[in-house]
Amino acid sequence: MAIVYDSLERAPAPAGLPLLNACDPRRIVAWRHGAAVRAAQFLAHVEQVAALLPEASAAVNLCEDRYAFLVAFCAIARRGQANLLPPSRAPQAVEEVMAAHPGSYALGELALAPAPHGYRKLPALDADPDAAPALAPALPADQVVAIGYTSGSTGAPRANAKSWRNLSASSAGTLAMLGAVAGAPFHVVATVPPQHIYGIEMSVLLPLLGEVAVHAGRPFFPADVAAALAEIPAPRVLVTTPVHLRALVAAGTALPPLAAMLSATAPLPIELALAAEQAFGAPLLEVFGSTETCAFASRRVTRDADWTLYEGVRLHPQPDGTLVEAPQLDTPVVLADIVSLHDEGRRFRLRGRNTDLLEIAGKRASLGDLTRRLLAIPGVEDGIVFQLDAADSAGVRRIAALAVAPTLSEAAILDALRRAVDPVFLPRRLRLVEALPRNETGKLPRAALLTLLG
User: Fold this and answer.
1) Cβ neighbours of residue 316 under 8 Å, at least 6 residues apart?
2) What pTM did the predictor assign?
């Protein structure tokens, strides 16, 4: 049973918090179509869209263009509504989230066919460099502005409501961490979708609350990433994932000078981190967090295996995971991650996840380490080791694996694993596939894995 702590002394939340850090109306908020979008123009677009929205409690923000998403996010919040962030933009996922919020609608800048019921299309966000300066509006601190859903990588997606105070507080640690490396102001290109909480934190909250400008695109291929970075000035920060980093390194595409790279959503192998830093000449930082907590720690894996907590964050290890106290949390949250604390509790080392740890025939291992050993086999391009739901006749939940390895056979992979792991942890089912069913942030929904395994 989790022991609940709440030792943080929180100051009373102010009645309202600004939507945008914009002391200077000419501050650059975004880069779009090769041009700077300044605070005055951005606020004018927010008010234009907000005036067109219907009465409702919530809306699914389906904008593909990151600037359009940013405008829609703020316009929805200005109307006192919550941005619904489904685990994916697949039609079924969108409909399920809308069904859970009766009366909600969907909003996007594209003409969708088929479109979700109640779909609204954004007007053209025309550039007007002479937009009149306006004061940034304030939002009630306790207003729920976003409801994010977990990815489903460990089960059914779960809803997590975020107030404007929650999100405002969560950005402080990341702004301090990146500012120490990149300076201020800096400019961001992100390969992750803005609908994901990591994308919200790094490409929506940073330009809203810090001296940061974000590129409107979401480049996917290495050449597109290089082109997007070339469209923004230095200092540049690339926000990405291990999956995209691996593709960038493999492609050998030259990138404009970077101040920093930022990774999250999946463990970052040290070998990949070293290769990325060597290829692109910039520090590669990781942030640690979850949909439930937002980011609360960071590290540079090529220099340190331990994570450093953001200011005001405290961890309490427990038998079933770790309880997190943070300024952005209204109440402490228990995560399944197992940690050990160091340096008077200011740093920690990740030891695994409660759901990741295995015990078979009295022996212990972790799914994360087994996956790392699978990926270390020459010829394995991608892979995952996971545990099946059902137990066999002996009451043991067996292990399965999927691998992308065009030049290898299943037998060859098992032979290589046999030299690296205890026999009781060899996958009883191993299937070669053309690609793993990764979502937009590189995560692997469990239901998709089980379907692919057959």
Assistant:
1) 3, 5, 322, 323, 325, 332
2) 0.82
